[in-house]
Structure prediction request, 163 residues.
Amino acid sequence: MKWVLMALFLVILQFQSHLQVFNLEMEESDYHRVHDALQLATDDAVEMVTQDSVSNGQPVFDQTKADNAFRSTLANNLDLDPGTWQPKPNTMLKTAPQVLDEEFFDWSNANFPYHYVNTTYGIDVTMNEPSIVLVVQFTMPSYAANVKPFTMNIPVVASYHGH
Prediction:
């Protein structure tokens, strides 16, 4: 009888271990998907500069177009409603992301190279060309019943390279 109980205990332990590994793998996969979508959206945003500023060699962001490009690309890549950023049904995220910080550094407000420090979000970077700094908060889902979803702030800095 003790061998049956021990075997049953080992099966349950192995099953629980597999569930935990599955949860960690899915969380890591979700994080990479969010990070990649955030980087793509920011890369789209930095391309939104005014044409007259490019022609004089000192690019300045069209901040409204840049913000709209960022929001549209992120919504498209993460299956969010484009207007509200609420996650669509049966998608990875369960709550809408929130932009915590959005800053534009271009020739209208900075000289390059420009050293930027934001201790709140742990950003310390030297920008050599016009750049956008964004910090977006995501609530990452959990796939295990005993693990709660967690919130994380992801900073990203993207620079205009004159493409």
